[in-house]
Amino acid sequence: MSDPCPNQSTDRTARIVVGVGGGIAAYKACQLVRNFAEGGDGVRVVPTESALRFVGSATFEALSGHPVSTTVFDGVDEVRHVRIGQEADLLVIAPATADLMARLAHGRADDLLTATVLVATCPVLVAPAMHTEMWNNAATRANVEILRSRGITVMEPAHGRLTGPDTGAGRLPDAEQIAELSRTLLAGRRLEHDWDGRRVLITAGGTQENIDPVRYIGNRSSGRQGFALAEAAAQRGAQVTIVAGNTVALPTPAGAEIVPVVSTEEMYRAVQERAAASDLIIMAAAVSDFRPATQATSKMKKGSDDGALSRVELVENPDILRWSVTARDEGEIPADTVIVGFAAETGGDGHSPLELAQQKIQRKGCDLLMCNDVSGGGVFGQARNAGWLLNREGEVRDIADGTKLDVAVQILEGVDELAHDRD
Ligand code: CTP
């Protein structure tokens, strides 16, 4: 296959190099390449020799629209590793095997991929995939440390079923997760691995309050922002627990524990059980303020029960955010635990969404509040978000429009910056 127009991206698209290591998960790189190509990005695939034992070069060539080679001795006249490395806006290696990471850590340049990495000055994202024992091995840990210390973003691998019957840490994250993190890096964000050992509790999604076995009171929250916060915290090394109400289907962030709940009462109990063991609590869930006073055990009929369905009596739910602030004041939660609330505001009564959020943070007493303007009906279920992060001292940080992961990364940076005197 000839190469008439390498890196044929336009100004609005990125030039992404996907390096593929020789592991079973190499087949997932196909989805990643496709994801980038469909997004309009110019993609080059640089596999290792052993990657081609798992996926043939024809597949990568067809998906990327570019020829594939593994060695610097192909196309010597154009010095491919220099050209591909220099022109890249982002280099993503997925899957990265233990051997490939060892070669990268030692600055080897014994094939086209490792030589390209040495040339590249763009952000580099490494998505490892291997058996748990290999991931936990001291040699691999040391190599990961070296790569991170050089500014390379090494993703935490996902937990789950590995090749063969065993389960553990080491799975390649979903192509969607790698692509989203790639876009965050392309947007100029950095994810340091600096929250090792930090315990983060996040509520996400919407709560549902049952009226009867088939009907409920709910809301439009998708859980995307809460899961993106969990992903960002996990990639920074934190130990993350998500108390998840109703959400759309979302991949589990690396190593995160998911506690599924349905109602506000269940979410309240799940938070109460875990809050004292958390360094940071982020309440991104859309919590139902009220629930039916009683829940019918059989389906309510619209024409019977004296029209009870048209007059469902509501009682107020506990305010989980308020509870956590009070519990901290009373010493049930450590004083240095940082508590972050969310506020989806439309504005009204002459007040802008930001003004309402400034009143809400004083009322709720949390340390930080992330405010979204939902007046146009956006945000819920959308892939993007924006807003302001504020503290009780009146400082406001703009959270720039971006994917929900991009916004999550900015919120966590804001936690570092605006949660004064708490750690
Ligand atoms: N929240 C909570 N428990 C509730 C209601 C809300 O923990 N019963 C949390 C949400 O997770 C969010 C924050 O409080 O972090 C603000 O939610 P919001 O619904 O905006 O607060 P309300 O007090 O219900 O304010 P409003 O009068 O605007 O509905």
Task: Describe this entry's structure for a reader.
This protein has 423 residues and is α/β, with parallel strands linked by helices. It has two domains: 15-186, Rossmann fold; 199-422, 3-Layer(aba) Sandwich (Rossmann fold), CATH 3.40.50. Helices cover 32% and strands 22% of the residues. The protein has 13 helices and 19 strands. The strands form five sheets. Strands 12-11-8-13-16-17-18-19 form an eight-stranded mixed sheet, with helices on both faces. Strands 2-1-3-4-5 form a five-stranded parallel sheet, with helices on both faces. It has a two-stranded antiparallel ribbon with strand order 6-7. A hairpin with a 4-residue loop joins β18 (384-391) and β19. It is elongated. It starts with 14 loop residues before the first strand and ends in a 5-residue tail after the last helix. Cytidine-5'-triphosphate binds at residues 203, 264, 283, 285, 287, 289, 317, 319-321, 341-343. Keywords: Decarboxylase, Flavoprotein, FMN, Ligase, Lyase, Magnesium, Metal-binding, Multifunctional enzyme. Residues 1-199 are annotated as: Phosphopantothenoylcysteine decarboxylase. Catalyzes two sequential steps in the biosynthesis of coenzyme A. In the first step cysteine is conjugated to 4'-phosphopantothenate to form 4-phosphopantothenoylcysteine. In the second step the latter compound is decarboxylated to form 4'-phosphopantotheine.
